């Protein structure tokens, strides 16, 4: 049991039935928490154990393990909040000046947009991060590197990181895109 002000840490568990007594774990232990008792390694000084894992990795008999431990570290991040859009059509904006993507969610790891192209409009080929495009309405073409795919309502295209991609509309075309950093 830990003394007041000290935290309890899981220490290695040595299976005496599997331990061959080679002593390699004792040699690599940086804190001298392990020792040999006869022909078996034991955790002689559990308070000293910082569990580097060296003992477990070097054991040829795989006699050393550690209880599973979950550590929760609270970190403030730019979290995306749960958002409900009852009708994506409200986010589709068609403009004579070109695409007007509407951002639904964005942080440093993810960006989700609704993209809308009027008849004949294009998004030129450009490299981008890993992304998923799901087409909601209309028909057109999506080019990924050297491949040209016909797209229409229900089609999904996944583009790898760095791939050049572009979209062109034959009819009014609407898609949902998620870029993953």
SS summary, helix count: 2
SSE arrangement, N to C: EHEEHEEEEEEEEEE
Question: How many domains, in number, for the residues?
Answer: 2
Provide the low-confidence segments as ranges.
1-6
- Number of extended strands: 13
Q: Can you tell me the overall shape?
A: elongated
Mean pLDDT: 89
Q: Can you identify the CATH class of the largest domain?
A: Mainly Beta
Q: Structural class from helices and strands?
A: mainly beta
Provide the helix percentage: under 10%
CATH H-tier superfamily of the largest domain: Jelly Rolls
Question: Which CATH architecture of the largest domain is right?
Answer: Sandwich
Q: What distance lies between the first and last C-alpha atoms, to the nearest angstrom? A: 45 Å
Instruction: Write the CATH fold name of the largest domain.
Output: Jelly Rolls
Radius of gyration using CA atoms only: 29 Å
Strand coverage percent: 35-45%
Largest sheet: 5 strands, antiparallel
Spatial sequence of strands, sheet with the most strands? 5-6-13-8-11
Textual characterization of the structure:
The chain has 181 residues and is mainly β. It folds into two domains: 13-65, Alpha-Beta Plaits (2-Layer Sandwich); 88-180, Jelly Rolls, CATH 2.60.120. The protein is 6% helix and 38% strand. The radius of gyration is 29 Å and the shape is elongated. The two termini are 45 Å apart.
In short:
The protein has 181 residues and is mainly beta. It is built from two helices and 13 strands. It has helices at 24-28, 54-58, and strands at 13-14, 34-37, 40-43, 64-65, 102-106, 110-117, 122-127, 130-137, 139-144, 147-152, 156-159, 164-169, 173-180.
């Amino acid at each position: 049991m830990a003394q007041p002000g000290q935290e309890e840490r899981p220490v290695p568990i040595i299976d005496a039935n599997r331990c061959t007594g080679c002593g390699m774990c004792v040699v690599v232990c940086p804190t001298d928490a392990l020792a040999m008792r006869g022909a078996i390694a034991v955790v002689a000084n559990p308070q000293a154990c910082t569990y580097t894992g060296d003992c477990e990795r070097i054991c040829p008999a795989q006699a050393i393990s550690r209880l599973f431990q979950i550590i929760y570290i609270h970190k403030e991040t730019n979290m995306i909040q749960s958002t409900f859009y009852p009708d994506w059509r409200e986010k589709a904006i068609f403009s004579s000046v070109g695409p007007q993507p509407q951002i639904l969610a964005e942080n440093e790891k993810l960006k989700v947009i609704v993209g809308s192209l009027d008849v004949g409009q294009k998004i030129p080929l450009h490299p981008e991060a890993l992304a998923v495009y799901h087409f909601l309405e209309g028909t057109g073409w999506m080019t990924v590197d050297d491949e040209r795919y016909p797209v229409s309502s229900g089609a999904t295209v996944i583009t790898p990181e760095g791939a050049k991609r572009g979209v062109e509309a034959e009819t009014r075309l609407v898609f949902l895109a998620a870029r993953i950093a």
